[in-house]
Amino acid sequence: MRETILYQGEAIEALLHKMARDLHASHGDKPLAFVGIRTRGVILADRLVEILSPLRGHMERGTLDISLYRDDLDNLAALPHIEGSDIPFEVEGATVILCDDVLFTGRTIRAAMNVLLDYGRPECIELAVLADRGHRELPIAATWCGARVETRREDYLRVHFTETDGRDDIAHYQREAP
Hints:
- This protein is of the alpha/beta class.
- The chain contains four helices and eight strands, in the order E-H-E-H-E-E-H-E-E-E-H-E.
- Strands 3-2-4-5-6 form a five-stranded parallel beta sheet. The protein has a three-stranded antiparallel beta sheet with strand order 1-8-7.
- Helix 1 packs across helix 2 (40-56).
- The longest helix is centred in the N-terminal third of the chain and has 18 residues, at 10-27.
- The N and C termini lie close together (11 Å).
């Protein structure tokens, strides 16, 4: 597989700052709750909250573990590692910004919304992703997107964050023709 780095370092920071500016411009001072999908969605939520905090003050934060809500549990070789969800705020009536690193088929987001709705009915759920690679299987779209990347379905797009991977980048992994 051939790796191509599409964005890295300062370019990632620029994408995050643009997403944060757009979110702030759209919502003004309205209270927001950021919920990250484990693992890299949590980092995206943390980074957006960090950028927005000087402008907005306190924002609610939570994490979702969708392991038991996946629709492909039958296809997994091993049982999923469950870390648990942590939603320390009232979801009912909240404006929730659901965060994930890459949007692909939409199935992860569907599972995350199912978990979130178990906590209550938010006023609305908006989706923030660092990268959207297309190839949707469900009618799900990002409200806030850092980068749209064209890929072939068999390719792979991976976000690396310093917190988990020691580097900040978006990498495109393209399968070589046989």
